Structure formats: structure tokens, C-alpha cells
Sequence to fold (88 residues):
Amino acid sequence: MYPKDHVQTIIAEDEETIRKEAIRFAQHMNRNYSGGTTTFIKVMSREEAQAHVDKLADYEKNHPQPDSEDFMDGIRKLFNKCYSHEKE
Fold:
């Protein structure tokens, strides 16, 4: 009724393993969660993930919370962990 996008982080050795795990996750959610359908869309490229992190950081800067700095630090660290194996 109220569709929304959500980014799920999956860390694995390669993109194909990430894709397989994401599909398994979506299937698991569809079998076990009654809040709606979960659909795997794609594995984000580095550029798409960076744009998503930037969007989250911009929103947090415009709507500060007591934990905003920790949140922004956490998403930056997670991005670096996910994409550190790629060349800049």
C-alpha cells in the first residue's frame, strides 16, 4: 500500500555472492514477514552507494538528532568497508 525503497547491506567476497544472498534475503522476508513484498532490485555500484550515503548525510545535517554524528560516521565506515576493495 505504501511502497518504499530500502537499502540492505550485504558484505561478501564478490558481487555474485552478494546478489545470491540478497535474493535469498528477499525470499526469506516474503515467506516470513507479513508487512509486504520484498523485491531484490540490484547490487548498487560504488557511485550509487556514494550518492545514497550523501543523501542520508544531507538529510541528517538538515534534521539533526543527538546521535547524528555517530550515524554519519557509521554510514561512512560501512561504505568504506563495503567498497574498500575497489580502486578509487
